[in-house]
Design goal:
Blueprint (H helix, E strand, L loop, with lengths): L2 H35 L7 E4 L2 E8 L3 E6 L4 E5 H5 L6
Antiparallel strand pairs: 1-2, 2-3, 3-4
Length: 87
């Protein structure tokens, strides 16, 4: 029974899980911030960095935006929350 090997394995496993859920949690908390701040709503025309278009849908992880050329852009909420938004 090697306790130090078990502890090391648990530490490595915990690190792997933390890295795996980091982006999911960042996007989730960013969506909460965007919703609470009323930064934008469905149907709004927004400009955020190089992204510009009409908000089609706001999800827990990403926001879908229809660009001027009618292309659908899927932008992570953490990216939108981390940049200035012109609405």
């Amino acid at each position: 029974f090697n306790v130090s090997a078990i502890i090391a394995s648990l530490g490595i496993g915990g690190l792997a899980v933390a890295l795996a859920v980091k982006d999911v949690l960042a996007n989730f908390f960013a969506s909460v911030i965007l919703l609470l701040d009323n930064s934008f709503s469905q149907g709004d025309w927004i400009v955020c960095g190089e992204v510009e278009g009409t908000v089609v849908e706001m999800g827990l992880r990403r926001t879908t935006i229809r660009a001027f050329d009618n292309a659908l852009l899927s932008v992570p909420n953490s990216e939108l929350a981390g940049k200035p938004i012109r609405n």
